[in-house]
Amino acid sequence: MLRFIVTYDYLCPFARNANEAVLSGLEGGKDWEVGFRPFSLNQVHVHEGDPAVWDRPPGDQGSGVLALQWGLAVRDEFPEAFGAVHRALFAARHDNGGDLRDPEVLETAVGGCGLDSAAVAEVVATGKPLDTLRNEHTYLTERWRVFGVPTFIIDDDAVFVRLMERDQVDELERMLGLVSWTGLNEFKRTTIPR
Predict the structure, then answer these.
(1) Cis peptide preceding 79, ω within 30 of 0
(2) What phi, psi does 153 have (nearest 5°)?
(3) Which of 21, 29, 178, 179 could form a disulfide with 172 if both were Cys (CB 3.0 to 4.6 A apart)?
């Protein structure tokens, strides 16, 4: 069994590409144990001396923070629905152009997966998902120096990756095989052939 962590923020199309591939691999029976961990891109862009996104009023947290809370509420309280909701929250942003600060956008995404959006909103209102976001984001940055999404973590090795195509399980597996190859630090194309 391969155990790994994958980070995400619903704002990032590359996180979508990778997370969809992970979900499809799991749905296809891959022998993986995966920890889906939120990472706030809004927090990464906070200026030194400014309050952290989780210490700001809800309307001033940034465009991705509320969606991360909804995803965490589902992950932790309704885990059987997480895969579908995880996909739906990415789609709300990248397919539908929805504003992830808008509770109606999130309610529609969650409700479309057959989950009671009011129940998820109640969990978010407790503040627990925001605390989880703070704790998991902070741990990722302190433990592995994570700086973006998606980052894949296997044991002590963390690798930031940009998979160019959506939902490609074979490409994901190829990449996972390289995570522990510490002799390669950076491999970045100077142009993207399209």
Answers:
(1) no
(2) -125, 125
(3) 21
Residue 52 has pLDDT above 80, yes or no: yes
Long-range contacts of 79-86 (CB under 8 A, 24+ apart): 81/113, 81/114, 81/115, 82/36, 83/23, 83/26, 83/27, 84/113, 84/114, 85/109, 85/110, 85/113, 85/115, 86/8, 86/19, 86/23, 86/36
How far apart are alpha carbons 4 and 157 in whole angstroms? 10
Whether 191 shows a pLDDT value over 90: the answer reads: no
Q: Give the C-alpha separation, 193 to 182, whole Å.
A: 27
161-179 per-residue burial string, b: 16 or more CB within 10 A, e: under 16? bbbeebbbbebbeebbeeb
Mean pLDDT of 115-126: 98
Length of the chain: 194
Q: How many CA atoms lie within 13 A of 192 on its CB side?
A: 5
Is 120 within 8 Å of 110 (Cβ atoms)? yes
Closest CA to 81 of 120, 31, 41: 120
